[in-house]
Specification:
The chain has 17 helices and ten strands. The chain is α+β, with helices and mostly antiparallel strands and about 500 residues long. It starts with 8 loop residues before the first helix and ends in a 5-residue tail after the last helix. The mean pLDDT is about 80.
Length: about 500
């Protein structure tokens, strides 16, 4: 270690002077550091800065009085590491170290007021000491930075290499800077294979999801942009289909320079299979409930009507045998009416099973046809209103259609209404379906969604649409059922 100032009576005298005035020097030095604009010191209280600098004064006194630079060396080594970790750059710390001269200057000048030679000699010793301090600090700061970088890299590697998820970092040119080994567990391909071929990920993406992934990866990265997940499938080396949940975000340096894209891929295959199983179960349950409802409708309407038809047919035969022509004619009129009612009921049920107009002409036309049937069969006044109509994915349109059917069935069975209105509002960000009637109404708090008025089926369908629904009703004031679905989820639904 280069020690520029040898122990001498002059250095010992300066040390004694600094010791006598150390409190004033420390206070002045801390205040000057705090007021140094453009440095991190300005963000810290003066009292905290004083605690950092007081040891520096004490070590300077010891070095100058004994000639040993070990105390100063230890102090500089400590602050180089601590200030580096606190984010202090070398320039700021060096400026503050040099301020020690200005902090000590008043005391030296006062002690040497009558002797210019003493003043010059003391300042020469102090300046030589500070040159050593600043130079040595720069060297130790660089060493600390190397150690910190090395340890940081080791921590990063340990963390990244042993993460369960597949982590990676792409540089601005689209080449991999890092790929975690977990990629092999998920895809069957090693990290070095991805590093050699940046297009490998896109190549193993499921063909049906490739456009989605390509579009996502081509999006312009924006600093501070929101991270959102993208779910897609890959085909592994073994030919298996795996589901991944992908998130990524841009990486920028402290100077704002774009450094690439940091990404994470999580294997969610088990979760997707569980979700699919639950969805399948829900669909099967909905199908069973629909079959049960249609069976009841057939029994309550068509079957009963056909049974009545057979009775009237037999009565007509007997009347004709007895030559009671008037009775036979009246029976035939009843037969005609019953058959007509049964035919209307059957058409409504067939329409509910698969309305061809839904796929051919859209949701509004399908609902118009259904309302016409309701008006004819249940003798209700009906109206449909549609704002800014647009075609929806057929799976979504069918779910909304079934919701409307269930609501209309509730009106016919329970509402004792004279008027029912269906409103379809196609907004810029959502679709809203409302079914309103002027019937007797009810207290929603007294009717459980888990069974009352067929609300369970509606709730399950709304859940599949990832939408919301609400019921507004009061006894004697009619009922309105509202369903709202956001456009953002419509295209992603696979019902």
């Amino acid at each position: 270690m280069n020690e520029p100032v040898a122990h001498s009576p002059r250095s010992a005298s300066l040390a004694a002077l600094l010791r006598r005035n150390q409190d004033q020097i420390i206070a002045r030095w801390a205040e000057m550091a705090h007021n140094l604009s453009g440095t991190p010191y300005a963000a810290y209280p003066v009292a905290e800065i004083r605690s950092w600098l007081s040891r520096g004064v004490l070590q300077a006194i010891e070095t100058l009085s004994t000639g040993s630079y070990e105390p100063t060396e230890a102090y500089l080594r400590d602050i180089s590491l601590s200030h580096l970790r606190m984010g202090f750059d070398i320039s700021a710390v060096s400026q503050v170290l040099l301020l020690f001269r200005d902090a000590a200057l008043p005391a030296i000048r006062q002690a040497s007021a009558s002797n210019t030679a003493d003043f010059d000699a003391s300042m020469m010793v102090l300046d030589a000491y500070l040159r050593f301090v600043v130079g040595r600090f720069g060297h130790l700061y660089a060493e600390a930075m190397e150690v910190e970088v090395r340890e940081s890299e080791e921590r990063f590697r340990t963390l990244a290499d042993f993460t369960f998820d597949w982590e990676y970092w792409l540089n601005p040119g689209g080449d991999y800077v890092y790929v975690s080994p977990s990629c092999e567990r998920i895809t069957g391909y090693r990290a070095d294979e991805f590093e050699r071929d940046p297009t490998l990920l896109n190549a193993i993406v499921h063909p049906d999801d490739r456009e989605l992934v390509t579009k996502h990866l081509q999006e312009e990265p924006i600093e501070g942009s929101v991270v959102y997940p993208v779910v897609f499938r890959v085909i592994t080396r073994a030919g298996q289909e795996r589901w991944l949940e992908h998130v990524c975000q841009p990486v920028h340096g402290s100077n704002g320079v774009y450094l690439g894209r940091r990404g994470s891929n999580r294997d969610i295959t088990d979760r997707k299979r569980a979700e699919e199983a639950l969805e399948k179960q829900a669909k099967e349950k909905a199908v069973a409930a629909e079959r049960s409802r249609l069976a009841r409708e057939l029994h309550d309407s068509v079957t009963q009507a056909l049974y009545s038809v057979t009775l009237y047919a037999e009565a007509t035969r007997l009347a004709l045998q007895a030559e009671k022509r008037d009775v036979a004619v009246q029976n035939l009129r009843e037969l005609h009416n019953m058959a007509r009612e049964a035919m209307l009921d059957m058409r409504m049920l067939i329409f509910e099973l698969h309305p061809p107009v839904l796929e051919e002409e859209g949701l509004v036309s399908a609902l118009q046809a259904r309302l016409a049937a309701v008006e004819s069969r249940a003798r209700l006044r009906t109206e449909i209103r549609a704002e800014a109509e647009r075609r929806l994915p057929i799976s979504v349109a069918e779910e909304l259609f079934r919701i409307a059917l269930e609501a209309l069935n509730n009106v016919v069975k329970h509402a004792s209404a004279e008027q029912v209105t269906v409103d379809l509002k196609f907004g810029t960000e959502d679709v809203c379906l409302e079914v309103s009637d002027d019937g007797v109404g009810f207290d929603p708090d007294q009717v459980s969604r888990s069974g009352g008025r067929g609300l369970l089926g509606i709730e399950e369908r709304v859940a599949r649409l990832q939408g919301t629904f609400a019921i507004r009703s009061v006894p004697g004031g009619g009922t309105t059922l509202s369903v709202r679905v956001q456009d953002a989820v419509l295209d992603s639904l696979d019902l």
